[in-house]
Amino acid sequence: MYPLDVVKTRFQLQTGVGKYTGVVSTFQTIIKEEGFGRLYRGIISPILAEAPKRAIKFACNEQYKKLFTDKKGHLSYIGAAEAGALAGATEAFVNCPFEVVKVRMQARDAAALYSNTADAVLKIARTEGPIVFYRGLEAQLTRNAVWNGAYFGIIPIVKANLWKPQTKGSEQFRNFIAGFLGGTIATTLNTPFDVVKSRFQNSKGAKAAIPWSVLGVAQVAREEGVRALWKGYVPRLLRLGPGGGIMLLAFDLVSSWL
């Protein structure tokens, strides 16, 4: 799924009208101008982050749900969303440095600035300081809280309104549908914060070029129009919609095996 993430980032970092206009045409432009390998440049950072951030997300969600479960053992839909939001925010503390490096490596000017991921880490630390690895943390906290709050809040609602499974296969398919719908709705809601996060983390130097979260969303809407807040939405949806279903299905399967 990583090439879709590269395309998403290119869309989000592009201000105004630029060369990236559609998912397919952006793939073609990147391959033609920079080579096929550019679609995987910087993949080391998210690979290193993927397992721990997903583990933290689901482990913390299970713990946070206890805070919102009443004495009768009932967890409301709002409680599920609140637990998910807290889990997403916790995940952001672990993942933020990896996101900064990933965004920098996916940007169009990355080839001229960094020879590889390790070089990017060293140059960022040396020229901008270690604190830059947490640039955009507040924006990422907001993005993660919105996505995971919606995702974990929607899943039990969808499950309750779908069929009651009679077999394990039927249950797994229902869970995939719930995760898919949860991922789709969550991506729709949090994309504006992802746009701000990407731009914030790609800004170089001591001072970022865009304010955080709500102020950043307002600035993008004012300068480029409301539609700009959903730049990169299609490649994000292609990745995180099915990904939400796969993630929940994988979690349930591995949990049952363990």
Q: How would you portray this structure in words?
A:
It is a single chain. The chain has helices at 2-13, 23-34, 44-67, 77-106, 110-113, 117-128, 137-161, 168-202, 213-224, 233-257. It is mainly α. The radius of gyration is 19 Å and the shape is globular. The mean pLDDT is 88.
CATH topology name: Mitochondrial carrier fold
- By DSSP (H or I, 4+ residues per run), the number of helices equals 10
What kind of assembly state do the chains in view correspond to? Answer: single chain
Mean pLDDT: 88
Q: What class would the helix/strand composition place it in?
A: mainly alpha
Provide a brief overview of the structure.
The protein has 258 residues and is mainly alpha-helical.
Ordered list of secondary-structure elements with their pairings:
Elements: H1 2-13, H2 23-34, H3 44-67, H4 77-106, H5 110-113, H6 117-128, H7 137-161, H8 168-202, H9 213-224, H10 233-257
Helix pairs in contact: 1-10, 3-4, 4-7, 7-8, 8-9, 8-10
Jot down its keywords.
258 residues; mainly alpha; Mitochondrial carrier fold; globular
